[in-house]
Automatic annotation (TrEMBL), chains A, B:
Native organism: Atribacter laminatus
UniProt modified residues of type N6-(pyridoxal phosphate)lysine: 198
EC top class named in words: transferase
GO biological process: glycine biosynthetic process, by transamination of glyoxylate
The gene coding this protein: pucG
Protein name per UniProt: Purine catabolism protein PucG
Amino acid sequence: METSKVKFLERTLMGPGPSNIDPRVNAAMTRPIMGHLDPEFLKLMDENMILLRKVFKTENPLTFPISATGSGGMEAALANIIEPGDRVVILVNGVFGERMADIAKRYGAEVKVLEIEWGKVFSPDEVKNFISKHAPIKMVGIVHAETSTGALQPLEEISYIVHNYNSLFLVDTVTSLGGTEVNLDQWGIDITYSGTQKCLSCPPGLAPVSFNEKAVEAVNNRKNPIISWYFDVSMLRKYWETGERFYHHTAPITMNYALWEALKIVEEEGLEARFERHSKLSNLLQNALEALGLKLLVEKNYRAPMLTSVLIPEDISDLDIRGKLLTQYSIEIGGGLRNLKGKIWRIGLMGYTCQKKNIALLISALGQCLNDSGFKADINAALSVLNGE
Amino acid sequence: METSKVKFLERTLMGPGPSNIDPRVNAAMTRPIMGHLDPEFLKLMDENMILLRKVFKTENPLTFPISATGSGGMEAALANIIEPGDRVVILVNGVFGERMADIAKRYGAEVKVLEIEWGKVFSPDEVKNFISKHAPIKMVGIVHAETSTGALQPLEEISYIVHNYNSLFLVDTVTSLGGTEVNLDQWGIDITYSGTQKCLSCPPGLAPVSFNEKAVEAVNNRKNPIISWYFDVSMLRKYWETGERFYHHTAPITMNYALWEALKIVEEEGLEARFERHSKLSNLLQNALEALGLKLLVEKNYRAPMLTSVLIPEDISDLDIRGKLLTQYSIEIGGGLRNLKGKIWRIGLMGYTCQKKNIALLISALGQCLNDSGFKADINAALSVLNGE
């Protein structure tokens, strides 16, 4: 097989991530590489920690990017908290809750899974009932914005319940961070992990994490050493947090430049303005999709503003439509995963991708592709929703 | 603390890595981001696998970059092979051998460590004696170019011994790959991991690995599931190798672009020409350092061509000299680690950094800094070594 056949195509990335990135972030990656112990790079690490704390709305000193993608962040969070034999509860309403349960089992936890229909969110009562049946529990894990369904889970009441049972509260904020309110300190989230390639609009490759004092205490009080060396925060914090700058591994330099620039952009826009943009434009997208004649998976009150799941109409081919969007319009949207495969499309409006022009493009292109397949999409009605705004 | 204080300085990176990168690699990272399941990105993944096989000199289908830095590659290699209770031998002559032993223990191995003086290499006889004492052994691990000392370990005879005892042979090629011969198939290396930020001259962030048929068989025959989810090659190969393209995690897109371009550059130069360049220029560097009046840590026959360890002369301050090189000449060199801290400097000539002009700059700058500190460095003699070539 010959190489050199790759075309680097400009895509409108409206799937579940990665999202498009600001040209400033692109440019940031071309800055000259410094060493991972260079005083200027250490300053940049400090600034990334400061900027991440603002986005997470936390004072947690231990807030930094793990040198891996979002799922590496998930493993880092679980691997540091869980010891063999610990009983934990994982709340599953999609693929990423399932993955959490899988990883927790691998690290030796006794995992109690409460699973509900994918696309739904958990009510405080069902969580309370489940926890009370299994208490005492070391940790309860849940996904904020479930990337496989686009459901946004309210967290405050559940956090209250979890802490009443004296458990640690771990939340997956991979898809939500930077696109909707994530308030670690006010909501009492003890451990979280995220990714860079969703609403932060930075390329994939880093996983911001944050551990509060209680979580750090749990790490410090472990009876067994952490199995994973790469994800061991008791060592990582000596490089990132404590000022010792003790060499652990060579940090991905350019990825940290990209994250720095992406976080500056978030800061300049302002968090609340950014949330408002995601909220307003996702409403527009959802209204336009419904005006096309499509139905959405998630109930209105629980839709994540950065990711909308659309039910694929009967007699319409998932792959055919997604293929046409990609080859004819260079638009990427996501398919369904696992039991939602072939049943939904996942349409992302994340960070830099979250622009009105992208909604207009998607609606026109999707409407046209659907009509070519015999579905009667009302493109006029859908576009007039956009014009009304 | 305010942010925005970072200066992105142009450094001549002559430490143990990261190295400087070719402007083409810098440009490659600015290509538009595609999704991790985009057909064009899948082609790029295929090409990265093909190009990596060429650099590793192997036909192993399971040859791909782990989405983490070199130490993540080390963990991936060990985590997949080792099951709790397995007896393994780790040969330690520096920090990275020690790290291998640490990780192997974390994953439950019974680790037998043969440690020799740092800066030396292992003789086949001492390895044979040690293995015979502890056989049967599942795996023997060794470092090819020990980044903490600059010693280059001959591997062929040791590989023969290891296989006579029916063990798997795992080799760390983080620093050697792309700078000197690494021949997986001919040398019988069963598992290896590397990094991108050394002689491949790509930013840090990926860890190329390769598992041969015997290694894959060991993974397939495990009695216990692999503990790490992120590094589980039984799942990763469904995304990378088998053509299923089964989603595992979101690959770091831009890092894979960078690796692709870096591997193209290696291919265009030609592996043998690249090895010759590293060999010739490192000889020049070593001769020039000796002409300055400095002594080298590693015996002549076992010096890694991409990394030279210099003994710090008596009464000379490690930090003072390295600080001056950085602030006055924007040159990074490395200090010693652990028991070599304050005793050696590590001077890298890796990939794109391996140019005669960089040697001239380093020799002039280091000579001048040493003379300022009262050491009588013979700069004239050292530079005439360079001019003689």
